[in-house]
Amino acid sequence: MRIQIKVGDVVAEAQLFDDKAPKTTKALWEHLPITDRTIQTRWSGDAWRTEGNYELRPEGEPVENVAGRLSAGDIIHFPGYRGGLIKVGIAYGKAQWLNPFMEPIDVAYLGKIDTNLDEYVELCQRIIFDGPLDVEITRIEE
After folding, report:
1. Are 104 and 136 in contact (CB under 8 A)?
2. What is the CB neighbour count within 10 angstroms for residue 134?
3. Domains in the chain: how many in total?
4. CATH of the domain at 95
5. Which of 6, 86, 103, 123 is the most exposed place for a label (fewest CB within 10 A)?
6. Structural domain of residue 80, as residue ranges?
7. Which of 50, 47, 126 is nearest to 91 (CA)?
8. Global pTM value
């Protein structure tokens, strides 16, 4: 499964890891298209998350393909039911999902941007200074 991610005026494509996180990637696919805004992560490094919530797995279900440290282009789903933050996120540099006490949080590693990554990174590095950007995540039908 492939998706297109448009942030501002930059368009990139990504491969979803439907073999490693089959239930979560299928749920993401079924939620598409997503139209939202990028919100800079507070404690997690060079990454943004969606403003809206996207429930891809029921509360209490185990997180598939748990991510550790992230690099530019890594796509995750954060099932933060306790805090009301159920987000899709994408790294644009070094990142790791952390709570306010700087402890790692389990997030599902869903995919990786594999086209136009440099332009994506360059634009997203400005989010922390310039504020949220519009984002559209859509299916690429094969």
Report:
1. no
2. 12
3. 1
4. 2.40.100.20
5. 103
6. 2-140
7. 47
8. 0.95
Q: What is the mean pLDDT of residues 47-59?
A: 95
Rounded to whole angstroms, the Cα distance separating 15 from 115 reads: 10
DSSP 41-109: -SSSEEEEEESS----S-TTPPPSSB--SB-TTEEEEEEETTTTEEEEEEEEEEE--B-TTS-B---EE
Whole-number Å distance between alpha carbons of 60 and 38: 26
Q: Quick one: tokens of 140? A: 């690429």
Tokens of 92: 């644009």
3-state helix, strand, coil in the chain (%, to 5): 15, 45, 40
Question: Using 50, 70 and 90 to split pLDDT, how confident is the model at 82?
Answer: confident
Strand, helix or coil at 110? strand
What is the spatial distance between Cα 74 and Cα 15, in angstroms, rounded to a whole number?
10
Tokens, residue 22: 């089959």
The average pLDDT across 46-72 equals: 95
Structure tokens at 98: 């952390």
Query: Above 90 in pLDDT, residue 37?
Result: yes
Confidence bin at 80 (pLDDT 50/70/90):
confident
Residue 2, phi then psi, degrees to nearest 5: -120, 145
